Amino acid sequence: MSGKLAERDVVNGRESPSASGLAVARPSAARRYLNAQSDSAFSDGFFKTLMLASALTIFVIVLFIFLELAWQSRMAIAHFGISFLYRSAWNPVSEDFGARPFIYGTLVSSLLALLIAVPLSVSTAVFITEMCPIPLRRSLSFLTELLAAIPSVVYGLWALVVLVPLLRTEINPFLMRTLGWTGFFEGPDYGVSMLAAGVILAIMILPIISSITREVMSTVPQSQREAALALGATRWEMIRISVLPNARLGIAGGIILGLGRALGETMAVTMVIGNRPEIARSLLAPGYTMASVLANEFTEATTSLYLSALIEIGLVLFLVTIVVNALARLLIWSVTRGASSRMA
Amino acid sequence: MGVGIEVKDLNAWYGSTHTLRDIHLNIPANHATALIGPSGCGKSTFVRCLNRMHETNPIARVTGTVKIGDLDIYNDVSPVVIRRRIGMVFQRPNPFPTMSIYDNVASGLRLNGFRNRQALDEIVERSLRRAALWDEVKDDLKRKSGASISGGQQQRLCIARTLAVDPEVLLMDEPASALDPISTAKIEDLIFQLKSEYTIVIVTHNMQQAARVAEKTGFFLNGQLVEFDATTKIFTNPSDKRTEDYITGRFG
Ligand SMILES: Nc1ncnc2c1ncn2[C@@H]1O[C@H](COP(=O)(O)OP(=O)(O)O)[C@@H](O)[C@H]1O
Ligand SMILES: [Mg+2]
Predict the structure, then answer these.
(1) From ligand 1's centre to the CA of A174, what distance in Å?
(2) Is the CB–ligand 1 distance for residue B151 below 6 Å?
(3) How far is the centre of ligand 2, averaged over its atoms, from the C-alpha of B40 (Å)?
(4) Residue A3 in this model has a pLDDT that exceeds 50
(5) Going by CATH, does the domain composed of B5-247 fall within 3.40.605.10?
(6) Distance between CA atoms of residues A55 and A164, nearest Å
(7) Do B58 and A233 touch (CB under 8 A)?
(8) What is the per-residue pLDDT across A213-234, written as a single tens digit (0 to 9) for each?
């Protein structure tokens, strides 16, 4: 095509000086090329269909996962009914199963992770984008992103070898002394615990939240920063009144992604949470999560009701993930509704 | 009340690029002063040196003295303090989009810990009135975002936000260049009214605008102040050949 275009150009070029009046009347090479193109309605429609098909595929896959889980767990659903969700029993011998401690463990460990990770990752992002000297910026962001690339079993190992002993010998005794009265930090102190799971999850989701936060903070326009500075804001005040508010939707999105990862994380949590299906107020007590019990017991499930109960746990995890995500989105939407409708 | 500005030996750089060279000038108090010149000649850099915004750019450097009244802004005070006394309005309106109209106007005072609600209400209303915006927004003060109003209104909101902290000097860097003619006329009227109380420095691309609002005009070219004189003199009988070429449209 381009060769032809160039050729016509040469022809045109040669003709135009000799008879300039004629040359003006002729369509230019560019015009002739464009006129020869078919209209794009066909390819437009084709791509539209393709995009729609991809979007539908995702939806259909999710639907099939749901249906399959529901089908495979039909025995447990029929046997325990809705009480499966709030019963605490987990006894393979007497075939008595309930999901409550696992739901509790999944929610509490993820919440704990957010509680620790959100302030840390937002401050990391603020430091990297706003305060850190430029040469250091790149290596620091590279390092935080590297955290995301480490396999979770490695996190689990590190947690077992370093974090758990550190909690047991240094941090937990301190927490018991200072915050023991709240009931959240009471002995006995095994090291492996809900707290250990929360901490390791926090470390694992930190890079997600902080890199997204960093990304959105760097898209805040310079004019917004200057608006604050020109009013006499210090650097920190500028971040507070201009950068963070401008970036808050993106930060919330990063938190949701982090939460999604925390809810489903299996390996590292299984290694440090203690794997005991009990609900304790103290965060120093062992717990269990839905993902962990699936990973631990799926291959050992001997009876069909046991297997069915485990699959129902998978179904609940699937639903809890969706519900929590929906709730988080709803929360963001309700918080920012005023602002975004104003912005529109 | 405004104060005069005294600029001596001002030089500014971006990295190794020498952007402003040996600027000397005295800007009179309570008047409007226009700065004109082809784009890239350093007008923005110059006004940004007057409130120490220039140095927020990590590669930027500046030498020389700038006195606002008796205050030597590069030696006597911190940049934060000086920016609280010198308001700045930018080329593109930049209200805070997550704040309401009210909060936008109040933002400067709140930054400084001002918490008296009743006084704040009064100041917000007065500033919006002075920026000729009050009648258009008074019903939506706390409901609408600063970014939901038209571009011309946003720019007047930014002026109100600046006026709320009662600055002594008002720097405006092409405040109307992104606006339609009606909004531009409103901004010009505003400058006309404000200049009896504030020292206004306005950068403009538009020579008619300079002629309409300013008593004094400075002509910048390639980082130098070529000529600084009464506006009428600059536009009718400039002393420098380059100024004459520029205002007669022979270049730039
Ligand atoms: N942030 C910056 N970094 C590097 N050079 C800049 C920067 N801002 C402006 N300059 C340069 O400084 C010179 C003056 O720019 P500026 O003050 O914006 O001119 P004007 O406002 O008169 O159009 C220009 O040559 C421009 O390229
Ligand atoms: Mg400029």
Answers:
(1) 56
(2) no
(3) 7
(4) no
(5) no
(6) 43
(7) no
(8) 998 898 899 999 999 999 999 9
Residue of A9 and A44 predicted with greater confidence? A44
Chain A residues touching residue B144 (CB < 8 angstroms)? 342
Token digits for A266?
């299996």
Please say whether the dihedral angle defined by the alpha carbons of residues A287, A290, A292 and A297, taken in this order, is positive or negative: positive
Strand (E) or helix (H) holding B224: strand B224-230
Q: What is the mean pLDDT of residues A112-126?
A: 95
Chain B residues close to A134, C-beta within 8 Å: 58
Query: Quick one: pLDDT at residue A10?
Result: 44
User: Residue A342: which of B83, B112, B145 has the nearest Cβ?
Assistant: B145
CA-closest residue to ligand 1 atom 3: B14
- Report yes or no: B46 and B20 within 8 Å, Cβ to Cβ: yes
User: What domains are there in chain A, each with its CATH number?
Assistant: 1-14+23-37 (no CATH), 73-343 (1.10.3720.10)
Q: What is the ipTM of this complex?
A: 0.93
Flag the least confident range among A41-55, A114-128, B229-243.
A41-55
> Between A78 and A330, whose confidence is greater?
A78
Strand blocks (E) in B115-215: 169-173, 199-203
Domain assignments of chain B as residue spans, ordered by start? 5-247
Query: What is the mean pLDDT of the segment spanning A124-128?
Result: 92
Ligand 1 atom with minimal separation from the B37 CA: 22
Query: In angstroms, rounded to a whole number, what is the distance separating the alpha carbons of residues A28 and A274?
Result: 77
Provide the shortest C-alpha distance from residue A119 to chain B (in Å): 21
Dump pLDDT digits (tens) for B185-241: 989 999 999 999 999 999 998 888 999 999 999 999 999 999 999 999 999 999 999
Give dist(CA B20, CA B43) in Å, integer: 9
Residue A5 has pLDDT above 90, yes or no: no
Which uninterrupted H or E stretch holds B158?
helix B151-163
| Dist. CA A55 → ligand 1 center (Å) | 46
Is the Cβ atom of B13 under 6 angstroms away from ligand 1?
no
- The average confidence (pLDDT) of chain A is 87
Q: Which residues of B235-247 are buried (b: 16+ CB within 10 A; e: fewer)?
A: beebeeebbbebb
User: What letter does residue B251 receive in the DSSP assignment?
Assistant: -
Please choose, from the candidates A325, A117, A339, A140, the residue with its C-alpha nearest in 3D space to the C-alpha of residue A247: A339
